[in-house]
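agent> Task received from the user: take the single chain below, predict its 3D structure, and emit structure tokens. No templates, no multimer pairing.
agent> Plan: (1) validate residues, (2) run structure prediction, (3) serialize to tokens, (4) report one or two observations.
agent> Step 1 OK, no nonstandard residues flagged.
tool_call: predict_structure(input=
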Amino acid sequence: MKVDHYTNILSEKVEDVPGVTVRWVISDKDGAPNFAMRVFDIEPGNSTPYHNHEWEHEVFVLDGKGVLRGQDQEWNLEYGNVIFIPGMEMHQFINIGKTVFRFICLIPY
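)
tool_result: status=success, residues=109
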């Protein structure tokens, strides 16, 4: 088992994405064979790339205000929102607030 506070795990800059950091709070390094849990911080005025990939992910918004840009729609996001993004669907998280936009993101291996 693992019990820790997420701030004890070092945050890493997301390569070539200014203003976005990630903490791999649970991963295969912890013995989790099926899923990884990550905590993303997006600084005000920044965003993840508009992208897609084969795997799904599940997201829980922890703090701040953001927008999820999808292929055909945009959604305003705030604390408590839950999101499911199927594999191969275009998406982007954008911070529209004045503070950090923080969310948990789960992905399969």
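agent> Step 4: summary for the user.
The beta strands are 12-13, 20-26, 35-42, 57-63, 66-69, 74-77, 82-85, 92-95, 101-108.
agent> Done.
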